Give the backbone structure.
Amino acid sequence: MRTSLSWILGILALSAVSLNVAIAQEKVSTDQLGKSFEKLSFGNTESLKSVSNRKATVIVLLSFDCPVSNSYVSTLNDLAKEWAPKGVTFVGIAPNEEKENELNSKAKDFGLKFPVYRDPNFTIIEGLKATKTPEAFVLDSKHILRYRGRIDNSFHARLKKNNQTTEFDLVNAINDLVANKPVRVPATETVGCPVPVKESSERKVTTKLTFHKDMLPILQARCQECHRPGDVGPFSLLTYKQTVNWADDIKEYTQNKKMPPWKPGVGLPFRNERSMPEKEIAMIREWVDGGMPEGNPEDAPKTPKKFTTGWQLGEPDLILSADEDFHLGASGPDNFRCMVLPTGLTEDKFVVAYEIKPGTPQVVHHSLNFYDLTGKARELQAKAKAAAKPTDLDRGPGYSVGMGLGFIPSAADFKPGAPDPIKLIGGWAPGQVPTFMPDDTGYFIPKGADLVLQIHYHRVGKPEKDRTKIGLYFAKKPVKKPFHTLSVDGMPALTWIPANTTNHVKTGSLWVTEDCQVHSLLPHMHLLGKSVKMTMTSPEGVKTTLIDIPEWDYNWQETYWLKNPIDAKAWTRFDIEAVFDNSSSNPNNPNSPPKPVFRGEETTNEMLFGFLGATKDGPGRVRASRIPPPPKKD
Ligand code: HEC
């Protein structure tokens, strides 16, 4: 691949442009449309010739740090291939890349099929007044800019995909140009990531905070566990340059509390809380607004943050994983895949801790862990294997489901006195630190059970392989108070959610019929979920909010561990109250236009459960009832 040196836009005639391109308001830009880029040249004559007689040239700004840009690689490859014989050339510009060899290896990793160049002097992005990746620019045969904007409308916001793609703006523009017609829509808004900002001596510094002294400790403590190479965060936040490139987003996402990911609002304190103190949020704001000074590298924390690579609680007693890799295709909707892992346990056990270790953390977004005694998960896995074709892009162990396990146990699966046929053993999300359960408690796991990990796979724009492991730690001493998962079940009330309702409320209740302690919470809904709240009301009528998730995000489902387990007396009532949005204003709505949605397991169905992790003083399950207590007799 040739260097960016050989690919320079001769646009010096254009007036000097603002360097703060990334900060500019990002609505539809018509900048530079109709302008001639006729001095557009490759550094070597041969290439210039090869382009000059083309019907159109498509320049796409790419960034291998930007999930939106990455998710378009295969679309762009297909377009480049389809249009090459019709006189249209595709060229990529990757302004984030500092080193050519790194650019080449990333382009190879992603299987990019057209040339891509760097833009070290910002000539191209400044010339085109480009602000985002992956913005596309289409030049006609005379090198006049005729289209700028999105490739199509698959995204309505960064990382938020529409369910259907209905507008193919780039292809329309190419078609129009090739047919010598005016481009029907010459400018559209691009959804994507900011292009880098040129270092500017003009940037006024109005803060004493510096990157090395003040920002780096915050990034290390709050962000880097996920935002580092190879982990789940879509880009790294290790260096000054990376931080400056993402500065506006870092400020915005921390201000609006989208990052670090932590969904609960007011409620009880949790052990695994990830939220960030207001003081740090304000420091980030001040540093970004104050000109982002780098400061002295000597002020940086003495050592870079270390990340444990081994098992964090020591070697587990049992490590389970599929016996081959799961292959995940480059693009398409997320895949919810159930991995069936026989435990081979010949005696009942108690699990006192578990750790999930994703094989390829970039793609593993969360897991829900179950055991299954019915054998149905095995059957589904065998069926999926029999139906698989070697050409499937997603292939390997497990079976794909909506959002549950793909089946619900039937009455026949419940045998009197026997363990429950299926049970949840918690949920995991990135950044969750494994810990041992409170003394004397543990999750029961019966002999002969299969562990079923439902893994939510996120795609990253190139094929990936994963083999996620779970490590189980068993109790070494008798467990006096088995941990029991109760479900506050909203399913009976859920039945269906009419189309075009924005605030559809559904509730469920459960009464514990004996004294117990509540340790953890895990609300569960699908795509129409808008908010969810779990409360408990004592027999005397005192109500406590256990957890309140004001903006439900099916992407982040995890077990919330109460910092201080809470006592519940017999006939305490637990409620779950959820609001669903089945209108077109819910970007996650699986139907466009909205359709009535019924309860069920599939992604396109809805569910409502609030799982409670509880113990009582003594063995056996915590007894509970779905019907209210009998009225008191005086
Ligand atoms: C527990 C893991 C985790 C931590 C900690 C975390 N992030 Fe993220 N971040 C993610 C993931 C995963 C995404 C992709 C979006 C999603 O899945 O919600 C993301 C997305 C983002 C985005 C949006 C990127 C885009 O393309 O839209 C920004 C900005 C961001 N993170 C900044 C931060 C900052 C700043 C911090 C620290 C203050 C932080 N994150 C901490 C996991 C994390």
Observations:
- The two ends are 87 Å apart (CA to CA).
- The chain has a mean pLDDT of 87.
